[in-house]
Design a protein that fits this description.
The protein is of the alpha/beta class. The protein contains 22 helices and 26 strands.
């Protein structure tokens, strides 16, 4: 049953923790931990393959135009980038609404001249008559008719408002439309027929020969390279400011700056993304590097950079983690329920720091996320649970020890047992002890000549006084065998001079019996006479009962010899009716007065025993207290 306890309790803890770990609150905490890993890793150097052309606050100041810009501006941007030798031109700007017919035709005509342009579309959802309607919002028909490629620019955030995933595609019914990031890759991989080259698997998205790991059914984790403006960024106005275009700023200066020619070389063989960066356009987002908001165009840039370098983030196998987590709960519970709190706190601290370091190194060196906070939280929770279990266990042990020994040994010895209950674990150990046997002389005839009531009353009075003397002298009452008393000295708590304490107890017992004789004489009761035998030596002592019944006792030849020595008190006339063995005498001869009686053969012993008559003790009370 005890073994099952260490299994079913961890199972309950495991189930409760798993329920907690799937809540939105916990997922948010886990997200914050992954964000922290990004910031700890810091900004990484990006390749020179991607640049961004932004339409920001400076753009509006330079051009002095309202949004949307005339589409001939975008046409000029395309022409200038193509002249500069751009590899790809990707718009994170939606040309989904018709404007001036002439302007639309200029843009369409310009786009039709090149095959490396990718425009933006979006999947939009509307609620109509209580149901959600989805539709692809594509570039205007004039652009579609020219065969211009286009992709999705939808960006989704987690529930805390942070962007950590990149939507690879959008799906409406059975139709899949790739994101501009995947459209960029398909062009770079020279994939002509997308329908044959894309495969949507549960764990990954296959584009040509590239396997992109998925974290949801349609998104991949973004391995961010830094905060906003990690990629080289140029202003839209600078790119269109060539010799035949004059900006409003140039008109104010009354000078032609022609900034395009100064930066044209920066676009050669580059993937160029164009997007809005002003906060007013609501296309800026929180990311793990939340020093400032990141425009959507740079989120696309991060994905393309990651895919270009095959630098994908993956998640640790959920099934493997679940198995590891379950086993760790079992091990942690066992440790925290059995190891002392001072040691377990060190073990748990090492495990906690070690796991966090492992999780961080997996992220940094293998681009792999393992749940960061689940194991540390479990370590802390199970440590607390372990403390509670240990406290309950300690209270039960203390209660048991007090119930089992409170009446049989001295209170200070009970306190010693409470400090170290392991001394009472099932099984025995060999140690040197002293055993005291005390037996009433001719008790059977006494019972025959007295009523049961008289016998019980005098026996109770006698035993009560004797037990008080034994416990006062640090002895342990082993058992009553009828009228016989068996006491141990030196167990279960270590006791120096256990032979002396046994001798002292025996003399005090006989003195108390003499006092009782006076009382019994006054009460007109027949007196009792007691013989006491003491022996010291190696004995097997411990909890020697069954698993059902606790029985702390001692066994062995020296235990039996003590009983035989007590029986010899009937054969030898001594002053105090106390006989001790040679070994007891040798252990404490400096503290007692004893006379040699005889050398006898006792049952169970091949070698004769020398026995001594105990007369008195010489050790003073002041010496005992030291």
């Amino acid at each position: 049953m005890k073994k099952l306890f260490y299994l079913y309790i961890p199972i309950i803890i495991f189930i409760i923790l798993r329920i907690v770990f799937v809540t939105d609150f916990w997922k948010n905490l886990e997200h914050k931990a992954t964000d922290k890993f990004f910031r700890m890793r810091g900004i990484r150097e990006v390749s020179d393959n991607i640049v961004i052309v932004e339409i920001g606050d400076d753009t509006f100041n330079t051009l002095n135009e309202r949004w949307p810009f005339p589409r001939e501006y975008h046409a000029r941007l395309i022409d200038n980038l193509e002249k500069a030798g751009a590899k790809q031109i990707i718009f994170d700007i939606e040309f989904t609404e018709r404007t001036n017919q002439t302007q639309d035709e200029i843009l369409a005509k310009t786009c039709s001249k090149y095959d490396n342009i990718i425009l933006a579309g979006k999947l939009i959802k509307t609620i109509y008559n209580g149901s959600i309607r989805e539709q692809f919002l594509s570039p205007i028909p004039l652009l579609i008719q020219k065969g211009v490629k286009w992709g999705m620019v939808n960006i989704s955030a987690d529930k805390d408002g942070f962007v950590r995933r990149y939507e690879l595609f959008q799906k409406r019914n059975k139709q899949i439309k790739l994101s501009i990031g995947l459209m960029s890759l398909s062009s770079l991989y020279n994939i002509q027929n997308l329908n044959n080259e894309i495969k949507d698997h549960p764990a990954y998205f296959k584009l040509g020969e590239d396997y992109i790991p998925k974290v949801t059914s349609k998104s991949s984790l973004i391995n961010f390279y830094g905060p906003a403006r990690t990629f080289k960024t140029y202003d839209f106005a600078e790119v269109i400011d060539d010799s035949i275009f004059t900006t409003a700023f140039e008109k104010e200066l009354e000078s032609n700056l022609n900034q395009y020619y100064d930066i044209a070389e920066e676009f050669k063989d580059k993937i160029v993304l164009i997007g809005l960066t002003s906060v007013e356009f609501h296309d800026t987002h929180n990311t793990p590097f939340f020093a400032n908001l990141m425009p959507g165009v740079e989120i696309h840039a991060n994905f393309i950079e990651m895919a270009f370098r095959h630098d994908y983030l993956t998640e640790f196998s959920f099934l493997k983690f679940l198995i590891i987590f379950f086993l760790s709960v079992i091990v942690l519970f066992f440790i925290n329920s059995n190891v002392k709190p001072t040691l377990s706190v060190i073990i748990n601290l090492i495990l906690l720091i070690g796991y966090l370091y492992l999780a961080y190194m997996l992220f940094c060196t293998q681009n792999r996320f393992i749940p960061i906070l689940e194991v540390p939280a479990s370590i802390i929770i199970i440590y607390i649970i372990g403390l509670v279990f240990q406290y309950v266990k300690t209270v039960k042990e203390r209660k048991f020890i007090k119930q089992a020994f409170g009446q049989y040994i001295a209170p200070e010895l009970v306190d010693e047992l409470i400090k170290d209950p392991r001394k009472l674990e099932y099984g025995g150990v060999q140690k040197e002890l002293t055993v005291l046997y005390s037996d009433i002389v001719a008790f059977t005839p006494y019972t025959e000549s007295h009523s049961p009531k008289e016998t019980v009353e005098i026996l109770r009075e006698y035993l009560t006084e004797m037990v008080d003397i034994i416990t006062k002298n640090k002895g342990t009452l082993d058992k009553f065998v009828g009228d016989e008393i068996v006491a141990l000295f030196g167990a279960p708590v270590e006791l120096e001079d256990h032979a002396f304490w046994a001798c002292k107890t025996a003399l005090e017992m006989q003195l108390k019996i003499n006092e009782l004789h006076k009382k019994w004489k006054t009460d007109r009761k027949d007196p009792l006479y007691v013989g006491i035998g003491i022996n010291s030596g190696l004995m097997t002592v411990g909890n020697l009962g069954s698993e059902q019944i606790f029985d702390y006792t001692a066994i062995g030849d020296n235990m039996n010899a003590g009983a035989r020595i007590e029986a010899l008190t009937r054969n030898y006339e001594t002053k105090n009716n106390i006989i001790i063995s040679e070994h007891t005498y040798e252990l404490t001869k400096e503290n007692i007065v004893a006379d040699f009686i005889d050398e006898v053969q006792v049952k169970g012993k091949k070698i004769k025993l020398k026995i001594y008559e105990l007369i008195e003790i010489t050790k003073k009370d002041s010496d005992i207290l030291q």
